[in-house]
């Protein structure tokens, strides 16, 4: 359906049958290829009558509507009027009487496409992550010039009625102040903001960033514009201040890896929902809760979305924030915790010392996690210590106390500013215990990959020998490979996926206008095929070879023949991904030579080993926020455990549940004792025994034109909005 509802009303060439070829090469294109338009005519009864006539003429009774609450409300109204519209068409002689029975029900499934993320019932809407990428790219660029010239920047982002983009980008860049419609600042905010900016500048910071949502208001309903904020700063502080209004830049560009995967998964769920729907099934919307697809009644979501605006209009701001959902509420709470430092006199005094360190290979988002841990720890009244170079630095005594301002500006930095090593602690347990005594370390936060898990298991084992390790310990999974058991997602994996997808897009583009070409790309990940599989799905790969799904020469031959057939008939470029350890014998060189030989006369081949570029670069908005929120939650858990295990003037914790990994499981963030994860782990290949993303592989094959079955065991049933959020754990992985 071209041009949205306008195309449905106009009919004719606007409604055409889609083929596999017609949607090829669409994945990396921003915006909407099939077009979208606001349609006044569809809002009228006559317009909907025309639309119904055009659908019946083509035998269409299933609609998948991608849009915001306005589009979805219109779709639901269309569905409710459907039988009446058909009777009217019969009366006017435009359709046969038997068509009413043949096309008796119109089935509708919605997918929410909106950069504002303003639709209740889903953690993330399609397009939001890409918009955040555009904002953060600009913020990162501005930071360079602002530091050079010692300036204050006021950034205005989209969000007339929803402050999600402003709030999350403020979290992702560590902004000094943020203004959003849902929570107008208290009276007298102008003076407080200027005091905050002045205090930050006096500590040696060379830049200040203020983020303003375009719909920001004060408590009396007066608009707060970016130019007003600029004039305020200049008048009260005399700081050199600039305004940047991002505007429609936020809507443009190529979709991020997260949005491509989200849209692909939601698309499958929408089709399954349409296939399973009956005349009695209410119109539903497919949404994301944690890492799971769910189906919710469309009008329940629309009504709750409208309730948010009503609460804001009636100045019930606390309620408006709650109605936005746990994800939004958690973002706001975390931002306040990290951005606004309490005076020393207001901080609780805990007398606990907490150490934080990175272990294993560097992953983007580690620095955001460290910053969050340090600031939340200080807010809880703890003394925070940073350990350089992992456990190697620990036993060498590379430990120092860190203050609030020491971690300023860390959120957007790639790699590991603390330094990280793969060294495990078992061989140096005595020296590490000595350092823990010296600095009186009462709790440990370890941020890292598989080595971090092994490290905590080793520390648990030596608790009987060294009482210094009988303290609360928590691990945050941070690895580009996403190979840690007990979690669906790891800090750093999203940044690596974006690096893979961007590179694959460029590589495919390099062949445009040339003869048919196939690219063989090698990804990292050790024995874990997450990057190859999910990267392949996001980049539109024809095949992805991984260790978890064994393959032989017959499979390779079948893939080559399949790709050859496609090349002859439809596509110009092919993409094949291979995980670095997928097979000892079928190496990247072997696969390259095989495809080159078998494709002679049809296509030629090129190979590319992506290597450590997957580990570098600035963290994606997702990883910055995932790291920040996970770390804040971990520190609050450690604080709780410290109070629970403090007896007779000392901390003593040796139970299994005092040494945990915080991971994303389905819809919830869960603290799991590391010893219980042993049975779920393949230690030889350093991967979990069960991995959720393997269920995405049939989808990748279907999109590559293979005939295969898709596992529908995870497809959702219609739930109610109020039941979609777990009560105890915040399920909002997505920012």
TrEMBL record:
GO-annotated molecular function: 6-phosphofructokinase activity; AMP binding; ATP binding; fructose-6-phosphate binding; identical protein binding; metal ion binding; monosaccharide binding
Entry's family note: Belongs to the phosphofructokinase type A (PFKA) family. ATP-dependent PFK group I subfamily. Eukaryotic two domain clade "E" sub-subfamily.
InterPro entries: 6-Pfructokinase_euk (IPR009161), ATP_PFK (IPR022953), Phosphofructokinase_CS (IPR015912), Phosphofructokinase_dom (IPR000023), PKF_sf (IPR035966)
Keyword Kinase: yes
Segments forming domain Phosphofructokinase: 3-273, 353-638
GO cellular component: 6-phosphofructokinase complex; membrane
Protein name: 6-phosphofructokinase
Top EC class of this enzyme: transferase
UniProt keyword list: Allosteric enzyme, ATP-binding, Cytoplasm, Glycolysis, Kinase, Magnesium, Metal-binding, Nucleotide-binding, Transferase
Any one Gene Ontology BP term: fructose 1,6-bisphosphate metabolic process
Catalytic activity, as annotated: beta-D-fructose 6-phosphate + ATP = beta-D-fructose 1,6-bisphosphate + ADP + H(+)
Needed co-factor(s): Mg(2+)
